[in-house]
């Protein structure tokens, strides 16, 4: 088994595992019957990988997809000869929520040109947490547009970076052009309680929407 | 195929999947959970043997298998759909793809998250 579970290479972006809950081995419990996913999205260096790593019970994992520059997924080379390709990395982590239920968190880059991998990962996602940095709010617009296009409901979490200007929530809502119903909170992606609270707020919102639409 | 392209990593996915397009790969989601259902791996390609070796240990999602084997998710789906066809792998946990997620599921997710606070 050790040979396939390489401890280095692309599968381990963050080095040795910090302490994880004792029962969190590589494998899922045999009793798991439902898997759900949430997306953690936002621009470059906003804290996606940190957020996933803070909450994951397994060492965060990474996969890489090869895409053409035009954004098509490459799973064989037919028709790709001569086209330039690019690599898109996805980080993800796992939270076992009960004997039957497991949640996966996918940290996905926000750039629109990666649309087809986005569609693949976003398909079936319950919702998304959009991380923003108040020093560069404009960089979050693209990913919010993409979520709206794909009809993925989202909440917004402001990662509190040192030296970032404090923003009154109302001004922030205006600047980000949020719907009145969209949850807006602050969050420290390095802190487990703060990150869990952000997900709780997101899922509470998802539940409210579902109740209203029922 | 040139050595250059091989170095750029452009060859590998094609070789691994045999260069075939599979319609059935679309039945897998990145979080579909699979388990091995057969011990016998004779006749499988080296990549499929590695996959079976990993999956023999227990249930894993497609994305986890991809990451542990350092393969793209898209390629892993192609390998898995072959292995389902040949009876080596079975889907173990469903993913809800309903346009509107059901409330029971969302409540269970919420309870699970709140229990961590
Ligand atoms: N102060 C503060 N720093 C943070 C927070 N979240 C992440 N960081 C730091 O910001 C840097 C970037 O975080 P990453 O998690 O790598 O960001 P990312 O979004 O995954 O970045 P890319 O994958 O490169 O787009 C790291 O040095 C983190 O330690 C936060 O909530 N507060
Ligand atoms: Mg990252």
Overall description:
- The complex is a heterodimer of chains A (214) and B (117).
- Chain A has helices spanning 48-55, 115-122, 141-149, 169-176, 192-213, and strands at 34-42, 61-68, 85-96, 101-109, 127-132, 154-159, 184-187.
- Chain A is an alpha/beta fold.
- Chain A has a single domain (37-213), classed as P-loop containing nucleotide triphosphate hydrolases (Rossmann fold), CATH 3.40.50.
- The longest helix of chain A is centred in the last third of the chain and has 22 residues, at 192-213.
- Chain A is globular, with a radius of gyration of 18 Å.
- Chain A starts with 33 loop residues before the first strand and ends with a helix.
- Residues 1-23 of chain A have low confidence and may be disordered.
- With 117 residues, chain B is mainly alpha-helical.
- Chain B has one domain (3-116).
- Chain B is 45% helix and 9% strand.
- Chain B has six helices and three strands.
- In chain B, α4 packs across α5 (73-85).
- The longest helix of chain B has 13 residues, at 73-85.
- Residues 1-15 of chain B have low confidence and may be disordered.
- At the A-B interface, β1, β2, β3, β4 and α5 of A face α2, α3, β2, α4 and α5 of B.
- The complex binds guanosine-5'-triphosphate and magnesium ion.
- Guanosine-5'-triphosphate (GTP) binds next to α1 and β4 of chain A.
């Amino acid at each position: 088994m050790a040979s396939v579970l390489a401890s280095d290479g692309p599968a381990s972006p963050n080095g040795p595992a910090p302490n994880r809950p004792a029962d969190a081995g590589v494998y899922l419990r045999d009793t798991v019957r439902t898997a759900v996913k949430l997306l953690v999205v936002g621009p470059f260096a906003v804290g996606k990988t940190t957020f996933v790593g803070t909450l994951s019970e397994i060492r965060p994992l990474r996969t890489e997809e090869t895409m053409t520059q035009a954004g098509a997924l490459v799973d064989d080379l037919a028709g790709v000869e001569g086209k330039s390709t690019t690599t898109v990395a996805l980080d993800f982590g796992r939270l076992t929520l009960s004997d039957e239920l497991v949640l996966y968190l996918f940290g996905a880059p926000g750039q629109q040109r990666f649309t087809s991998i986005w569609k693949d990962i976003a398909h079936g996602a319950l919702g998304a947490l959009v991380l923003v940095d108040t020093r560069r709010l404009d960089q979050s617009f693209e990913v919010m547009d993409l979520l709206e296009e794909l009809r993925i409901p989202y909440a917004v979490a402001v990662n509190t970076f040192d030296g970032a200007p404090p923003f009154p929530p109302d001004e922030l809502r205006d600047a980000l052009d949020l719907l009145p119903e969209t949850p807006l909170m602050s969050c420290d992606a390095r802190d487990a309680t703060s990150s869990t609270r952000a997900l709780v707020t997101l899922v509470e919102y998802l539940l409210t929407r579902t109740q209203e639409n029922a | 195929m040139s050595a250059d392209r091989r170095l750029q990593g452009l060859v590998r996915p094609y070789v691994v999947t045999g260069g075939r397009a599979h319609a059935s790969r679309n039945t897998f989601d990145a979080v579909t959970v699979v388990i091995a259902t057969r011990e016998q791996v004779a006749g499988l390609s080296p990549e499929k043997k590695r996959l079976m070796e990993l999956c023999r240990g227990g249930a894993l999602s497609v994305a986890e298998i991809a990451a542990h084997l350092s393969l793209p998710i898209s390629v892993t789906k192609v390998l898995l759909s072959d292995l389902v066809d040949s009876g080596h792998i079975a889907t173990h946990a469903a993913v809800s793809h309903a346009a509107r997620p059901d409330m029971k599921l969302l409540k269970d997710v919420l309870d699970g998250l709140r229990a961590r606070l």
